[in-house]
Amino acid sequence: DIQMTQSPSSLSASVGDRVTITCRASQSISTYLNWYQQKPGRAPKLLMFAASSLQSGVPSRFSGSGSGTDFTLTISSLQPEDFATYYCQQTFTTPHTFGQGTKLEIE
Amino acid sequence: QITLKESGPTRVKPTQTLTLTCTFSGFSLSASAVGVGWVRQPPGEALEWLGIIYWDDDKRYSPSLKSRLTITKDTSKNQVVLTMTNMDPVDTATYFCATGIVRNYFEYWGQGTLVTVSS
Question: Of A52, A90, B12, B16, which has the maximum CB count within 10 A?
């Protein structure tokens, strides 16, 4: 299985901050990397696919980059509704493993 | 409009078999390249990819659960069924079905169903 490691596991930030979350794959996955946002009690929501493609309807303050083994999700200016848990997922090969999550909390 | 919804028991006993049904609308699992997958999430923990079934009946499973998992489809009913044998308390989780239609990432999700394994 390809292991996906996110860092940090948790992060405290303030509204308006710029935040970056990192995801590292245990082997190269090209750009088969997706990002999800999950709020308590809700299903995950797709934010980004193919490492840097913004899902329709997702605000442009979200951006993604990377290829191979190292990827980042950046939120340019945090809004109150962005406080949630974020997961990366590789779809290069099955099993399509998820990272362990990054919980973004209000500072 | 694409929707998915999971249904099944909310509680099972250890060693029992869990059967969950994902009923979907707005797309067809008989269309080329379409897939429906399952993801679970223990309380307070991370998402875990369980498996996926494709339009051509190709099935892929998490290796760690492969011996206990079966995913089947009923195209005429627009349903996908997940069966997990020998349930254990560590299998307590919210189980989601999801699809990206022809993509392997999950754009559409069900609301999830919490399954508790307890005697």
Answer: A90
CB pairs under 8 A between A and B: 58
**Which residues are bridge partners to A4 per DSSP?**
A25
**Buried b / exposed e across A64-94, counting CB within 10 Å, b at 16+?**
bebeebebbbebeebeeebbbbbbbbbbbeb
Q: What pLDDT, in 10s, does the model give residues B96-116? A: 999 998 888 999 999 999 999
Comparing alpha-carbon positions, the chain A residue that sits nearest to B4 is A43
Smallest Cα distance from A8 to chain B, Å? 14
Question: What would the pLDDT profile of A53-75 be if each residue is shown by its tens digit?
Answer: 999 999 999 999 999 999 999 99
Asked if residue A91 lies in contact with residue B104, where contact means CB atoms within 8 angstroms, the answer is: yes
| Residue B15 Rama label (left phi>0; alpha psi -120 to 50; beta) | left
